[in-house]
Amino acid sequence: MLAIYVPFRLFRPLKATHTVEAPKGAVSNRSIINDWEVSVYNSLLAAGIYGLTVYSSFMTWLPVYLVLHFEGLRDISGAHEARLPFLIASFIPVGIAAKSFLFTPATGAKRDLGDIRQLAFNPETASLMETVEFNLWGYSKRTRVMITRTATLAALTFLNTWYQVALTVEGAESVGAAGWAGVWATAAVFTGTAFWWVGHVDGVSN
User: Fold this and answer.
1) Which helix (H) or strand (E) holds 21?
2) R_g over Cα of the chain
3) Residues whose CB falls within 8 Å of the CB of residue 194, separated by 6 or more in sequence, listed in order
4) Under 8 Å CB-to-CB from 168, ≥6 apart: which residues?
5) pLDDT confidence of residue 127
6) Buried residues in 6-22 as b, exposed as e (16+ CB within 10 A)
C-alpha cells in the first residue's frame, strides 16, 4: 500500500481534493474531506480492516498455506502469536495512505457528464448498447472513482507483492506468493467497500 501511495504523493501534483487551498466549488464535500476527525476515523477504519484481514488469515488458512508453498519454512509460531490490537496499530500508516488514495478523491468527486447522462437515461428510448453501458457502469461519479481506485490499488498491491515475494524470497513458490499477495489485495477491496459505504451516509452530497 505504502509502495503505491508514496510515489503518487511525491511525483504527482496534488489534486484539488487534497488541498484546502482549492478554489471554492472545485471540490465536493470539502467540509468532510478536510475535517480532521473524519480523517482520523477513516484512517483508523482502514487500519482496522487491514489488521483484521491479516489477523483472520493468520488464525485460519494462511499458516498451513505458507508451510505448503514456502519451501524450508519451519517456524510459523509468529502467525499464531499475532495480536489484533498490535496489528491494527502497525497498520495506521497504511490506513492513512488508504484514506488519501480512496476516500478523499471519491468523496470530493464532483458530478460530471456521466451523472447527467444517468439522470437523463430513459430505458424506453435507449439503444441496446446504451442500456448495457448503463447497467454495467451507470453509477455516480463518486462510485466510479471508488471502484476504479479500489481496483487499481488491489491489482497493483497484488502484482507488487507477488513479484517481490516470488522473486526475492528463497523457497517461495509462485502459488504461495499469490496467496500471500491475495491477503493484501483482499484487504484493499474490503477497505474500498467500507469507504464507499461511509461515503453514502446522510449529509454527504452526490
Assistant:
1) none
2) 20
3) 45, 46, 49
4) none
5) 76
6) eeeeeeeeeebbbeeeb
How does DSSP classify residue 19? -
Torsion angle (degrees, nearest 10) of CA 73, 75, 76, 81: -160
**How far is residue 173 from each of residues 28, 69, 130, 194, measured CA to CA in Å?**
46, 6, 45, 32
Give per-residue pLDDT as tens, 114-140.
666 666 656 777 777 877 777 767 788
**Mean pLDDT, range 16-36, rounded to an integer:** 65
SS3 62: helix
Average pLDDT over residues 180-192: 97
Residue corresponding to grid cell 484493499:
188
Using CA atoms, how far apart are residues 180 and 189, in angstroms rounded to an integer? 15
Residues found in the chain: 206
Separation between Cα atoms, residue 101 and residue 35, nearest integer Å: 16
- Cα four-point dihedral sign 111, 113, 115, 116: positive
144 HSE (CA, 13 A, CB side): 18
Task: Give the residue, 149 or 28, on which the prediction is more confident.
Answer: 149
Q: Which of 41, 15, 39 is nearest to 28 (CA)?
A: 15
Q: Cell triple for residue 201?
A: 451516509
